[in-house]
Write a structure and sequence with these properties.
globular; 223 residues; single chain; seven-stranded mixed beta sheet
């Protein structure tokens, strides 16, 4: 959980950060359809659900790029975490509420998937906004709205505008022209991310979906 403080005197993004933090403070969102035509049947064949796979893809992509890990620490210092963990929402069907849960991350999908299963087994029936407790500061927010195939999504965070980490939301996947598409919305702070970085995020998610066989486990029934 290492946090590296950014040296503003040598940071190549200083002018952009100062403008979008102090002059025109703003966030922006980008929504795109992720093509999961190839990935979805592979997940089903191997006994995996889409949501934990999506959490893995998002977190791995975030961890690959410093821009998505820049934030202020508890001391108010600007820097970036070495590694992020997913903090995600899940739904309670009996009363239509949701809870938030964080889980440890591993680049090995099998390890991460087991962490997810263990946490859901322990906390999946617990009610409340944050059910696990002791959430570390190096988490990113991920959620799902599986009831609608949205074409745009924007989350308004009414703070002092200093929340810099990305927020990712997926919607209900749908079929179009023989392909299965998953709406994905990414919200970032313009002080640390531009359209270029948001595009990298979406494109790398698509690459992971296209080559899911490279990171998914073998069929559990075969072991």
């Amino acid at each position: 959980m290492n946090f590296t403080v950014i040296d503003m005197n040598t940071w190549e993004r200083r002018a952009y950060f100062e403008h979008y933090m102090n002059v025109t403070r703003c966030t922006f969102s980008m929504t795109a359809n992720l093509n999961i035509t190839k990935m979805l049947p592979v997940l089903r064949a191997k006994g995996f659900k889409l949501y934990p796979a999506f959490l893995y893809m998002v977190t791995k992509t975030v961890n690959a790029h410093r821009e998505f890990r820049v934030c202020f620490n508890e001391a108010g210092e600007l820097g970036y975490w070495e590694k992020m963990l997913p903090s995600f929402t899940f739904f309670h069907k009996d009363d239509n509420t949701f809870s938030g849960l964080w889980t440890d991350f591993s680049n090995d999908f099998g390890v991460f998937h087991q962490n997810y299963l263990d946490d859901m087994s322990k906390y999946g029936e617990v009610k409340g906004l944050f059910v696990k407790g002791n959430e570390p500061p190096n988490t990113i927010n991920v959620s799902s709205i599986p009831w609608v195939s949205f074409t745009g999504f924007n989350l308004n965070v009414y703070t002092d505008g200093r929340y810099l980490l990305p927020i990712t939301t997926c919607g209900k996947y749908f079929e179009q022209a023989g392909e299965i598409l998953l709406p994905v919305s990414l919200q970032v702070h313009h002080a640390v991310c531009d359209g270029y970085h948001a595009s990298i995020f979406i494109n790398e998610l698509q690459e992971m979906a296209n080559h899911c066989e490279q990171w998914l486990l073998p069929d559990p029934a075969a072991s």
